[in-house]
Amino acid sequence: MTLAQRGRWITLVALALLGAVYVRALMFTPLERMQGAAQKIFYIHVPAAIWTEGAMILLGLAGILFLFLKDPRLDRFAEASAEVGTVFATIVLTTGPLWGKPIWGTWWTWDARLTSTLFLFFLYVGYLLMRGAVREPGLRARYAAVLGVCGMFLVPFIHLSVFLFPTLHPQPIILKPSAPSLPGTMLETWLFSLGVFTLLYVGLVTQRYAVSLLREARQTVGGDHA
């Protein structure tokens, strides 16, 4: 089985399990007392947000290692992580307003958490645009590594913004120093969803990494023929 095929199978399994997450969330997980049915978006929004930030952290770590080791595999992984992170950020910025409208009465508010998450999305997009604009591979990889490191340092600010600034966005109920503030059934559903999003990240990154390998192989063959 090739790397691309392996990634495709992982992704398909993850998507099937994502359907199972929502069957469990809608049919076997209790309603939240204050928010009602709108709270069900939580089971996709929060895991997607965690992996939006996680993808940037891994991108930044790969960038740091690349600056020292100059290993092209790290640059390929960073590019793949950036593309998948952009997808997850889009999910976050779509599901957030859908959840916020019935709870806050508005689709969007310029508080620190939402604004910094939007900035992270633009940073992802800028990273990918920069990679497309710089043609020389070595220079592109170095610029991308530096930008990825900068993006990585934005992630702690996003997480801490709800503690540092007045905001409509609630404080964390799971990723916090004390025990998670969720009933057991809700926590189990959320952990299931987080596991599925982790698998989805792995599957998508694996496929994108395989695409990079194929593209480089074609460029090498084309260069040899030239």
Task: Note down, in words, how this protein is organized.
By secondary structure, this protein is an all-alpha fold. It has one domain (3-27, 40-164, 183-216). Helices cover 78% and strands 0% of the residues. The chain contains 7 helices and no strands. It is globular and about 60 Å long.
In short:
The protein is mainly alpha-helical and 226 residues long. The protein has helices at 3-27, 42-69, 72-104, 112-133, 137-152, 154-164, 184-225.
Which terms would index this structure?
7 helices; 0% strand
Question: What's the topology here?
Answer:
Layout: H1 3-27, H2 42-69, H3 72-104, H4 112-133, H5 137-152, H6 154-164, H7 184-225
Shape: globular
Q: Strand-and-helix sequence, N→C?
A: HHHHHHH
The share of residues in helices is over 70%
* Strand count: 0
How many helices in DSSP terms?
7
- Main β-sheet description: none
* Spans where pLDDT lies below 50 across 5 or more residues: none
Summed over residues and divided by their number, the pLDDT gives a mean of 91
